[in-house]
Amino acid sequence: MKLYFLLIAAVLGAAGQTTQTGTANSNLSRPGGSAGFLGTVVDAAGKPLESVHVTLTVFGESRLLFGREPVAIYGSLTNEKGRFSIPEIPAGSYEVALEKRGYLMAPSEASNRGPVSDSHVQLKVGEHFTDVVLHMVRRAIITGRLLGEYGEPLANARVSAKPAGSIEGGWEYAMTDDRGEFRLSLRPGKYLVAADASSHMPADEHLSGNKGNYQFTYFPGVATDKEASLVEALPGGVTGDIDFKAIRVATYTVKVEVTGVPESSGRLSIRYNGKESSGSQSRSIDAKGGTASMLLGPWPAGTYRLTASYSFGETELQSRPTDVTVATSDVQGILLSLATLLELDGTIEIKNSQAPLEPVKRTVALLQPGEPFSMAGMAESGADGVFKITSIPPGTYIVMVEPLPKNGFIQSIELNEKPAKDLKPDLSGVSDVGRLKIGISLNGAHITGTLDQRGQIGQTKIVLVPRNDEPNPANVHMTAPEEDGSYSFEGIAPGDYVLVAFRLSSDLRKMPELIQRNKESAVKLEVKEGDKIVKDLKVISEGNNASQK
User: Fold this and answer.
1) Ordered domains of the chain (ranges, CATH)
2) Using CA atoms, how far apart are residues 337 and 507, in angstroms rounded to an integer?
3) Distance (Å, whole) CA 480 – CA 470
4) Which is nearest to 200 in space by CA: 220, 218, 178?
């Protein structure tokens, strides 16, 4: 789930937070269907702030896997009275941002007044807001040192801080220097401070016989947030001497044998992905007998997914992903077999259409289960639905099609005229070129409803996730509510789901935690093909961790 929501973070983009009031004079007609956004920026005491850079950014349409890019930015600098003016801009949806040295945007408060909801503003044709009030707070600083088991400084470690009581995130990060010192720039408040020092030591030092590493550690040197002490960051001030030792844990190595290596010089790489560690190791080899070995790690106990790849000139080989569990000792005898990359000739077939559909080019992507960021192949179909994907490693894949037709979902997938189990084709048995057939039904379920907190819809997201299956970009749905609090999903495949609505901070990294904590208390739905379901929702927020009934 973690990887998927890191992907969502890229799709939505991070945004700042504002608090505002304001009124509009719609009688002032704006030329060319334009609008106006004028107001004042003030500090926590209500004093106007000069030289604040106010920007309104328009983002392009989000496409899953590809994220959003800014397509237009409008700005203004506040004067000595804190006033800013962004007139004569096109009506539309904008993200608001504020920048001033020594200050940060203030978190938003629920309000029905004015145009801004959190960091989002919707400007309609002819609207001319003249007295929007945006807030900023003085930056607070936390400094300290991260130390090792014997009091030695830990360099190149990541130290983070999260607001006390936060479920939705808000982590801010800093790296330690060669003296183990760190400096965190934050909004005023109380924070949990933690450190990840697992990567502070070069790999070659690990492999020379060092049998330990450092785990995620909370100030003042404890393993869980329940044991941690809070650190208060004061506005405009520095909270110093936050020194603590990272907790050391046992680590182990994994020895991998790679077979199917050509009898020639080349480059062998092994990619690993686990909760405790992710990355890759590679080296040049001159294989003898078609076999090469590599020592990985050391890693803490956990499960890791390994994939080997080989390249030399035009030759490219790759193994099927293999999961390895590290427990209480070094692991030996892990075998990864290289194989040639494959091709898929495919077609997209639209089922039960009552009328001919307009020809549309669609993107077909193959994703690895458990690794939504790892795309094994992608191609664009022609208007006739025909596509070809090349250079695919052997393995089992999630198939994703974008865009789907209205109310459409993937109903069936066939590989070489045989149904793919759980809609996940296994290419391990394909020798060279496979034939993939994707069947799309237009009879997906439709889910609608309304949120109970209409004044707090800014940055609220409604998420529909599978109840039992591993979430991935192809089976997770997310939307934002309309201005009246209504929401809608269409093209939902049959299955059991969890439906939840919650407010997001600018940092989306804690979304998985929020969903997981509320999964049992959120709405549970059994969805059948063609269903029309109406379900009103309560919004879960940081102060309301399990309000869904």
Assistant:
1) 2-138 (2.60.40.10), 140-250 (2.60.40.1120), 253-340 (2.60.40.2100), 342-441 (2.60.40.10), 447-540 (2.60.40.1120)
2) 40
3) 23
4) 178
Phi, then psi, of 530 in degrees rounded to 5: 80, 0
Could you tell me which residues come within 8 angstroms of residue 8 by beta carbon, excluding any fewer than 6 positions away?
Answer: 478, 508, 511
| CA proximity to 318, closest of 337, 305, 300 | 337
Q: Any residues with CB less than 8 A from the CB of 27 and at least 6 apart, and which?
A: none
Per-residue pLDDT tens, the chain, 549 aa: give them: 333 433 343 333 333 333 344 444 433 334 446 889 999 999 988 999 999 999 999 887 654 444 567 788 899 999 999 999 999 899 888 889 999 999 998 865 544 345 776 677 888 888 888 888 999 999 999 999 999 989 999 998 999 998 886 654 567 889 999 999 999 999 999 999 999 886 554 433 433 334 457 888 999 999 888 899 999 999 999 999 999 999 988 888 899 999 988 877 788 899 888 876 777 888 787 766 788 889 988 888 889 989 999 988 888 888 988 999 999 899 999 999 998 888 999 999 998 776 667 788 999 999 988 776 678 889 999 989 999 999 888 889 999 999 999 999 999 999 999 999 999 999 887 777 889 999 999 999 999 999 876 445 666 888 898 888 877 888 889 888 888 889 999 999 999 998 988 775 544 445 556 666 666 667 899 999 999 999 998 887 644 443 333
d(CA 490, CA 6): 24
CB atoms within 10 A of CB 345: 13
How many Cβ atoms from other residues are within 10 Å of residue 306's Cβ?
22
Q: Is the pTM of this model over 0.85?
A: no
Residue 264's CB is within 10 A of a number of other CB atoms, namely: 12
Classify residue 27 by burial, with Cβ atoms within 10 Å: 0-12, 13-18, 19+: exposed
Rounded CA gap, 549 and 538, in Å? 8
Q: Is 126 exposed, middle or buried (0-12, 13-18, 19+ CB in 10 A)?
A: middle
Q: Quick count: other Cβ atoms within 10 Å of Cβ 358?
A: 6
Q: What are phi and psi of 314, to 5 degrees?
A: -90, 0
Residues 6+ apart with CB under 8 A from 101: none
Tell me 12's DSSP state: H
> What is the distance in angstroms between the CA of the first residue and the CA of the last residue of the chain?
23
> Rounded to whole angstroms, how far apart are CA atoms 173 and 308?
32
Task: Name the CA dihedral angle for 523, 527, 530, 536, rounded to a multiple of 10 degrees.
Answer: 0
CA-to-CA distance for 281 and 371, rounded, in angstroms? Answer: 18
* Composition of the chain by helix, strand, coil, percent to 5: 5, 50, 40
